[in-house]
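Note to self: keep these together.
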Amino acid sequence: MDLFDNTYRRNYISLYDVIRSFEFAIKNVDKMRGNVYNIGADRLNCTKQSIAKIVQKLLPQTTINLIDKTDIDQRDYEVSSKKIYDLGFCPHYRFKNGINELINYYSYLPKDKTEREKITRHMRNDCPVDIVTFQKFIAPKKGDI
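Structure:
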């Protein structure tokens, strides 16, 4: 695993918790209307290297290569989700479980790199989620609110 700017911090959250946060917001729309909230797992305000070490524990064959070059993704931040936590929302899903889900997913992909890239490229190109499609399926219809 090549790691650029290993001391840069990131915040991680499970997609399942993001979905739960949307459900929470819908149920608490009167309290939340007109405000902006960070959705993150504050306990996962971690450096990229500390996250890589967690992955390495789950996949011992993983080698972490610290690369002395600047990452094109220059985000380095710590997120506070206290504002939404104070309303009662709390992330539930563990980071390690998410990594294990990814490991399980990748175990089903072909071992051949070319075949694996064909599948993942197909998934990216043929399964886009755009805002129009998203709104079509989840946006409330007139009179629903």
